[in-house]
Description:
The structure holds two protein chains of two kinds.
Chain A: H1 20-47, H2 50-59, H3 61-94, H4 100-106, H5 109-112, H6 115-126, H7 133-138, H8 147-172, H9 175-183, H10 188-196, H11 201-217, H12 220-226, H13 236-245, H14 249-281
Helix pairs in contact in A: 1-14, 2-14, 3-8, 3-11, 6-8, 6-12, 8-11, 8-12, 9-10, 11-14, 13-14
Chain B: H1 2-7, H2 27-56, H3 60-69, H4 71-104, H5 110-118, H6 125-136, H7 143-148, H8 157-167, H9 170-183, H10 186-193, H11 198-227, H12 230-236, H13 246-255, H14 259-291
Helix pairs in contact in B: 2-14, 3-14, 4-8, 4-9, 4-11, 6-8, 6-12, 8-12, 9-11, 10-11, 11-14, 13-14
Amino acid sequence: MSEAPRPKRRFRQRTVIPGFGLTLGYTLTCLGVIVLLPLATLVAKAAGLGPAGIWAVATDPRVASALRVSFGVSLLAALTASIFGGIVAWVLTRYDFPGRKLADAVVDLPFALPTAVAGIALASLYAPNGAVGSQLAKIGIEAAYTPVGIFIAMVFIGLPFAVRTVQPLIAEIDKEVEEASAILGASRIATLTRVVLPPLIPAVLTGFALAFARGVGEYGSIIFIAGNLPYVSEIAPLLIVIKLSEFDYEGASAIAVIMLAISFVTLLAINLIQAWSRRRFGYV
Amino acid sequence: MSDAVASLPDSPDGTIRPAQSVVTERPWIRWLLIAVALTFLALFLVLPLITVFAQALAKGWGAYLAAFTEPDAQSAIRLTLTVAAIAVPFNLVFGVAAAWAIAKFEFRGKNLLVTLIDLPFSVSPVVSGLIYVLVFGSRGLFGPVLLEHDIQIIFAVPGIVLATVFVTFPFVARQLIPLMQEQGTTEEEAALTLGASGWHAFRTVTLPNIRWGLLYAVLLCNARAMGEFGAVSVVSGHIRGLTNTLPLHVEILYNEYNFVASFAVASLLAGLALVTLVIKSLLEWRYADDIAAGTRRH
């Protein structure tokens, strides 16, 4: 090399703070034993089937239908959660009304409520003889034990993601920009659609992706309301449980790896959206 | 500043008073949006919560309380408390150690490490259980070795603890990392320069700085640990009185059409969720800056 000698790149920069080796070592050990080793075992198990074997599992009619239900319904639910979550976030941040703080706290309920509890509550509410289900039955909608029930559970579980990713950005909107837009003659609608909303789009997409990923993997809040009819309302995580109970470890692993792969693509998309947003707007 | 400008027209002595502020919507649109948001929250979030308590008390307090006195319920309560008592402190220690290494030092591969710690959040609960069956199950990676030494992990308490540790793994670390990064290292450096030992500096400088964030993270970690269903369901084996946690007990009772008992046990978990939410909100209102980095909450 003809370049001038550069200082040697170190693994870490010097500091007087102690404990680096100890804490990093402990962190890596825990991470390896608790997270990486088990996940690697899963990938190895599925890899044992080979690409053709995984493809055969994925295209098995019952598996394909479960994957379609999980991903399709989750897409619709995440879309619904994003739209209503956006309205909820806007209302909670911009308007003042009695009970606002209570409503804000309620949004986190799906994070705190165990999924099995949410599951039996939703199932009993939306069952044909339940409080809401009986009303829906009158207008000819069967909610419980159909994909509609899965949709309801996924909206429940995805809502906080949609609200909480957008809310901080709405709070940070500079009202002077809105004023400028209004003073320059824009109508309120024009200000909203052309000044306020565009910077929020990345956050909305992130919330959508998080809600979608959560819905795809969700199990506890869905199985009670879904009815779990093969080919109709059977979700992919349930099929993993069924395969496990039949000691079909390979089949279970294959479905799990397919789900993981799609989740990673979703996470990658989130990161790309955020990187793009940082470049475009200067923040996430 | 912008608030002051926006509120000027509303000042009582303001002589120039526009019909409405330019930075909000017309009143009827405001009220319509508030109505839509509150109806949505009531229908999707509040109603299920009320249902839990209504169903639990459907046959009166006697039937409600009876659900807790039966031995299976009591052993489920004991197991849930035991699992949380192991999983939460484990992740507390891990989270603090990980945050110390990541926030106080600059080293290569840091972003990758943070991503890997977050990994369990993007894994389906069922898959979180499955991976431990593949490692420790009788036909798994270490199955033969464990069988030889007569150690049972899957379909036993250790498996339940492991699955719970996995699903709650990122909670403390991801809360503390941005917080400790924002606080920097100057205070610790000052303490060390004045002769404090590393451990002493951590205890008297770092710990007080992060205590509210830590409490907040532990609270959420505990709620998830006690309420986890999918992952635990896969590794538990559902042995009544032995490997049933509270959420699994709820499922068994529900599938047996014992709705009152099922919802009664569920109401215990819902109560835990409510207490968690109340403390969480109080912490957020009072110590917002001490919980999360910057003004953003998540």
